[in-house]
Amino acid sequence: MAAITKRSTSEGVRYDVRWRLPDGTQRKRSFRLRGDADRYAKKLGGDEVAGLVIDPNSGEIPFGRYAESWIESRIVKGRPLAPKTKSAYAELLRNTLSDFDPVPLVRITPDSVRSWYSALLRSKGPDRAAKAYRILRSVMNTAVRDRRIGQSPCLIEGGGQYEAPERPMVETDVVLQLADAIEPSMRAIVMLAGFAGLRPEELLALTRADVDLMHRQIRVDETVQEINGIGRVTGPPKSEAGKRTVAIPRIVVQVLDHHLSHFAQPGLDGYLFVGERLGRPLGRNAMYSAWHAALRKVPAAPPGLRIYDLRHHAATTTARMPGITTKELMARIGHASMRAALKYQHATEERDGKVADWLDGLVAAAIERRAADRLAPVVVLGEH
After folding, report:
1. Phi, psi for 118 (deg, rounded to 5)
2. 130-144, pLDDT tens digit by residue?
3. Partner of 223 for a Cys bridge, out of 91, 201, 266, 289, CB 3.0 to 4.6 A?
4. 301, 174 Cβ separation under 8 angstroms
5. pTM metric for this prediction
6. Angle 304-309-311 (CA atoms, 0-180°, nearest 5)?
7. Of 114, 111, 87, 113, nearest to 100 (Cα)?
8. Is residue 348 pLDDT above 50, yes or no?
9. Is 168 or 127 the better-scoring residue by pLDDT?
10. Mean pLDDT of 152-168
11. Looking at residues 300-314, what average pLDDT do you find?
């Protein structure tokens, strides 16, 4: 329980509120008015009953130091942060939250957060401001749980929300044109992204052992990230849903068969996609450079189209298959639902094979349309 003592000082009477923390440490806070001391003692009594007694000195740690420790020790769904995520968080702290670095946690107020957020919104835009606010809110919420501060100063309604602009849609014909336009060693990248829905970081991690042409399947169980100051980092997907086996259409099987014979590294552990320099694994910069060169050759490609948007094509075309369920679609593209409390079941291989057959039909129809319109034919295997 808190106790109040009265004492005289050169500046007048002071009222000291003294209390003990659960570990036995004694704390004191002084007030000029007896009423303020009474209210604080009453609050401490309520917090003590609720188990919320805060050590006022623990909140004096500077935000920057605490946030750095937060990044290193953060656990999400039982896993530490991936290196790429750590790097992204550190960059946000460095470039958007540095104003708070020297400020003690306990001195960060709702007003200072609102002023910072308004300025960031004007200078960096809503996307950047929302990302930075989510980091600040998470750090301060952890400080509350650590009993360093009594409550979070992040009270901006909707501050961490941002509606990203809808990505451009791409037709199957355009995917095929891009596969023809890109350099031969990366044709399989376009086909796997556009018809199997693989992410760029999943494509760069594929090895020969992940390809099963006989059963028309690609196994995804690793990703590759390239981090400034660290380099190439291979690790598991962000979620368990990212680990999956995807059935692929026959036309993709044909492209992969040719690719394995001409471009992939030898051996089961050999990477599927290889860079020009000394046969090393393909890097993101080289992949994106080839992608942008291909875009310039295909006038029908929507402006600003990214390799990642091909995955959107794979998902939307798959969703058109009659009778396909949301669970089957999510399993195929490796997407974890944030509202799902349990891991959803993966679609059966038989059902996923039907999805691949459905995509074969779409591709065949697109090829026929291209021939009818006198477009450049799909490159026949061996012409590359």
Report:
1. -60, -45
2. 999 999 999 999 998
3. 201
4. yes
5. 0.66
6. 170
7. 113
8. no
9. 127
10. 83
11. 90
* Residue reference for tokens 């329980």: 1
Select from 304, 314, 290 the least CA-distant residue to 181.
Answer: 290
Partners of 211 in the beta sheet?
218
The pLDDT > 90 percentage for the chain reads: 45
Residue 81 amino acid letter: L
